[in-house]
Design brief:
Number of strands: 2
Mean pLDDT: 81
Number of helices: 33
Distance between the termini: 68 Å
Strand content: under 5%
Shape: globular
Radius of gyration: 28 Å
Helix content: over 70%
Largest sheet: 2 strands, antiparallel
Strand order of the largest sheet: 1-2
């Protein structure tokens, strides 16, 4: 029996996704409506508090204040800078400060990272300890080192004198006289300020270099060892090339921050003695805020914009290339020959040395001597280890390596912890002991009188103000960054890539370009001397970073989870709230930690915007505790301890989330 079956209809091709899209969706992107809602708050804040103020600053730079009137003067403010000796000195100081600081931070950060990388036990703990200078507020760093370097009450001169190092430094000419006046001697003030910046910056370089070392394939080192390569050869031909992308990005980021540094130098020397340490940012502050010539101050910051723009463009290109493995190498291969690539670093080094010799002849040879001592010692240990390894004496090689690393680690920890120890013990000394300088390194007896005296003033009010401003600005940044980061990571709309680049650009834009136009903006809307001015201003430096980090973190979450929720009838916002946010807790906590601590530590905006004592935050309030030459060492130490403890505790409890959030976010982003 024959069964007749109906002929199946030919299968029709599935309709294209674009056929269901409206014309507007095809032009603006499938998710443009939802993207507008998600990105809207961030776009308003970035445009209103960063882009528009910078454009307004350009117009301000073409004006000049004559009494109560502001008149248009065209390019006069810029042409006046040609013969402005203060501006020339400020730019030169910024260059010298940045160049020396970066050289020493790279060198010591690399040495510290190599030591930690080869540690088998206690690496996480030591890395956490080394991170402390970077974690504690800048105001604490400034006051602690100012106390240590004080020629009368500080311990640096005492320890160097008792150890014989100080007179030896004077004998070889590294200091002109002994005891040294570190912050009041024009020849020593800049090296002292550089030293403090290096102390605070080494942890950042150590952590990033350590992450770069972990990313280098260990098989390369093992293959080189089989081929008979010495430790030095493996370092030169494997470690350094593997670290090159991380090193370039780290140096560029740090250079932008260091070149625009204001708070650390102000807290240490206020640009003195004379103008020996005044950077260009301080020149802009002096003209705009102290002399009330906003146009001249804006011109100072904007004339340096091309220098910053070059660094930012290089940074963006490097970071975008790093997302594509091999792209950087291919790009270099097309433009430079192998010989040119090998010669380029030496050309840069020689050029930098010649510029530093011209700009700071009194510093360059001293820096070369100090740097040379450490480099020669490290190279000598490496040579000895290589010699023992070549002879097959591995036990001796390990012994020399362990001894050298141990000594270097003890020295590094001593350098890191000594200022923090000084701050802690000074907080528990009596005023009589501080003045009499008895038992400098130990309170006799321990007393809490500094804390009692501290809270008789406005310190408690400053503490509450700082908490309110930090929490409010963190909530704003976190909510806006979560929405914008998700939109940039998941939604399809035109302009998403350009907006991501804009976020990155605004992230590295220094506060030096913003404090003048934001000061005008806050004055115009009547928010000067108000905590609301800080709540609105702080997202300018926290929101871009938070968004950029969360973009990378959201990309690391599998999209299949959201698609399954959408198939089950969940809306896009519902999937974001129920699926993505719970999975993104490490990234959100990392962002909250960074934004909270940055707001907690911020000095420049609070210093410019707030003058009323009852509205000051902790960094500015502590700075106001100094009256002319009267420095309450004990109370400042107690205040520094109380300011640092919350930040250290937050980093201690959030270290696991911070590491996970940065690993997924910064790498993917």
């Amino acid at each position: 029996m024959t069964v007749l079956r109906p002929r199946e209809a030919p299968a029709r091709p599935a309709p294209r996704a674009s056929s269901s899209l409206t014309r507007t969706q095809r032009v603006l992107g499938r998710d443009w409506r939802l993207a507008a809602v998600f990105i809207g708050p961030t776009l308003v804040l970035v445009a209103g508090l960063i882009l528009v103020p910078i454009i307004g600053s350009i117009f301000t730079s073409a004006t000049e204040r004559h009494g109560a009137e502001t008149v248009f003067v065209g390019l006069d403010n810029y042409t006046a800078l040609v013969d402005d000796a203060m501006f020339h000195k400020g730019v030169l100081n910024s260059f010298v400060f940045t160049a020396y600081a970066e050289i020493f931070k790279v060198t010591f950060g690399l040495i510290a990272a190599l030591i930690l990388h080869h540690m088998r036990r206690g690496r996480a703990f030591i890395a956490g300890v080394i991170l402390l200078p970077w974690v504690i507020p800048t105001v604490v760093t400034g006051f602690t080192w100012r106390s240590l370097l004080d020629p009368i009450f500080g311990s640096v001169n005492v320890l160097l004198t008792e150890s014989g190092i100080g007179p030896g430094l004077a004998a070889i000419g590294l200091v002109d006289k002994w005891p040294a006046e570190w912050l009041s001697d024009p020849a020593l003030a800049m090296p002292a300020v550089i030293l403090v910046n290096v102390w605070k910056g080494i942890p950042f370089f150590t952590v990033t270099f350590l992450a770069g070392l972990k990313a280098i394939d260990s098989n390369l080192h093992e293959a080189a060892m089989v081929d008979g390569a010495s430790p030095w050869q493996r370092f030169v031909h494997i470690t350094l090339p593997g670290l090159r992308p991380v090193m370039i990005v780290t140096v560029l980021l740090s250079s932008i921050w260091t070149f625009n540094n204001f708070d650390l130098i102000w807290l240490l020397t206020q640009g003195g003695p004379g103008d020996a340490t005044a950077p260009y940012v301080m020149v802009a502050y002096s003209k705009a805020i102290q002399q009330l010539q906003l146009g001249a101050g804006a011109a100072v910051t904007l004339v340096m914009l091309p220098v910053i723009a070059i660094l930012v463009v290089i940074l963006v290109r490097m970071m975008r290339r790093s997302d594509q493995p091999g792209a950087a190498d291919l790009g270099r291969g097309r433009s430079l020959t192998p010989g040119q690539r090998r010669a380029l670093p030496w050309v840069i080094v020689v050029g930098a040395v010649l510029m530093l010799t011209w700009a700071s002849p009194h510093i360059v040879w001293k820096a070369a001597v100090v740097l040379g001592v450490f480099v020669v010692l490290a190279a000598a240990v490496g040579r000895v280890v290589s010699a023992f390894a070549a002879r097959g004496n591995r036990l001796a090689a390990r012994l020399v390596t362990g001894t050298g690393s141990g000594i270097a680690l003890v020295g590094l920890l001593g350098f890191v912890l000594a200022p923090l120890y000084w701050m802690t013990v000074t907080a528990f000394k009596s005023d009589d002991q501080i003045v009499a300088r008895t038992d400098d390194l130990w309170p006799t007896p321990w007393t809490t009188e500094q804390f009692t005296n501290l809270f008789t003033g406005a310190f408690g009010t400053w503490y509450v103000n700082t908490i309110l401003v930090s929490v409010a600005s963190t909530v704003i940044a976190l909510v806006c960054a979560a929405l914008a980061g998700y939109a940039l990571a998941r939604l399809k709309f035109r302009g998403s890539e350009s907006f991501t680049v804009t976020i990155l650009l605004t992230y590295v834009m220094p506060g030096a370009l913003l404090f003048i136009p934001l000061y005008q903006l806050m004055s115009g809307i009547g928010l000067n001397d108000s905590l609301w001015s800080l709540v609105l201003a702080y997202p300018t430096f926290t929101l871009p970073f938070a968004t950029w980090l969360l973009v990378g973190y959201f990309k690391s979450i599998p999209a299949d989870l959201e698609e399954a929720a959408l198939v089950d009838g969940c809306t896009r916002f519902g999937a974001f709230r129920r699926i993505v946010l719970p999975l993104a807790k490490p990234g959100l906590l990392a962002v909250a930690l960074f934004t909270l601590t940055n707001a907690w530590n911020e000095f420049l905006f609070a210093f410019v915007f707030i003058t009323k004592n009852e509205n000051k935050t902790l960094p500015v309030g502590m700075q106001s505790m100094i009256f002319n030459d009267v420095v309450p060492q004990g109370q400042l130490a107690a205040a520094s301890l109380l300011v640092s403890i919350p930040v250290v505790l937050m980093y201690g409890f959030g270290q696991r989330f911070l590491t996970e959030g940065l690993t997924a976010g910064a790498v993917k982003g």
